């Protein structure tokens, strides 16, 4: 904006909304919540798995299939419900008027039953994936790291992470009993 020119009313607030709208990939998903199925709106652009599902590889097929995507999203949902996401803000509960409050670590007994059940599901799923693969699943599915970031963090060459992630998601899908997991890339290349 040049000096001396007035901005149209509301332009400051509208700019981020236009940006977000341009990068949002709205979708609907049916989820199980407290024993009942419900439809929810989701932004499929926020997840690296959503990007990989939309992205085509050699041969025009998606880099991950629907079964792998659903397995990763199921792990992410349990991770979130289990309150396993790291805190990124300050805990202001100890600050306030009057006497200072004593800060106590979070008591596991105070965590809701559904959160504890979700934590157990996450632990079982990561155990089923195995060591190494579970680290990648946490990074990409739960912490929403992009593949390039994850590859650098694990010290892998470019594009190796996609292959390892596909294997990890196949194991996860098998653990969850989701549809037929995609054949390995070696089998596809050999035509078997």
Termini separation: 60 Å
Q: What is the beta-strand fraction?
A: 5-15%
Shape: globular
Strand order of the largest sheet: 1-2
Task: Please state the CA-atom Rg, rounded to the nearest Å.
Answer: 21 Å
Number of strands: 2
Order of helices and strands: HEEHHHHHHH
What does the model show?
- The chain is mainly alpha-helical and 192 residues long.
- It has a domain at 29-85 and 112-187.
- The chain is 49% helix and 8% strand.
- It is built from eight helices and two strands.
- A two-stranded antiparallel ribbon has the order 1-2.
- A hairpin with a 2-residue loop joins strand 1 (26-33) and strand 2 (36-43).
- Helix 4 packs across helix 5 (133-142).
- The longest helix is centred in the middle third of the chain and has 17 residues, at 113-129.
- It is globular.
- The model is unreliable at 181-192 (pLDDT under 50).
Topology (SSEs and partners):
Blueprint (H helix, E strand, L loop, with lengths): L10 H13 L2 E8 L2 E8 L4 H7 L11 H16 L31 H17 L3 H10 L4 H8 L5 H17 L8 H6 L2
Antiparallel strand pairs: 1-2
Helix pairs in contact: 3-4, 3-5, 3-7, 4-5, 4-7, 5-7
Identify the notable features of this structure and list them briefly:
192 residues; mainly alpha; globular
Sum this structure up briefly.
It contains eight helices and two strands; from the N terminus they run αββααααααα. It is mostly helical and about 190 residues long.
């Amino acid at each position: 904006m040049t000096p001396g020119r007035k901005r149209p009313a509301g332009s400051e607030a509208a700019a981020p909304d236009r940006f977000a709208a341009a990068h949002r990939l709205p979708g609907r998903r049916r989820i199980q919540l407290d024993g009942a199925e419900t439809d929810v709106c989701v932004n499929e652009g926020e997840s690296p798995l959503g990007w990989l599902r939309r992205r085509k590889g050699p041969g025009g097929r998606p880099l991950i299939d629907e079964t792998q995507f659903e397995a990763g999203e199921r792990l992410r949902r349990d991770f979130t419900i289990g309150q396993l996401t790291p805190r990124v803000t300050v805990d202001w509960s100890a600050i306030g008027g009057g006497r200072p409050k004593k800060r106590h670590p979070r008591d596991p007994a105070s965590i809701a039953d559904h959160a504890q059940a979700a934590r157990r599901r996450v632990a079982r799923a990561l155990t089923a994936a195995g060591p190494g693969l579970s680290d990648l699943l946490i990074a990409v599915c739960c912490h929403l790291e992009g593949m390039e970031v994850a590859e650098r963090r694990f010290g892998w060459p470019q594009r190796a992470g996609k292959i390892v992630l596909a294997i990890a998601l196949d194991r996860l899908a098998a653990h969850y009993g989701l549809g037929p997991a995609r054949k390995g890339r070696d089998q596809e290349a050999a035509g078997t």
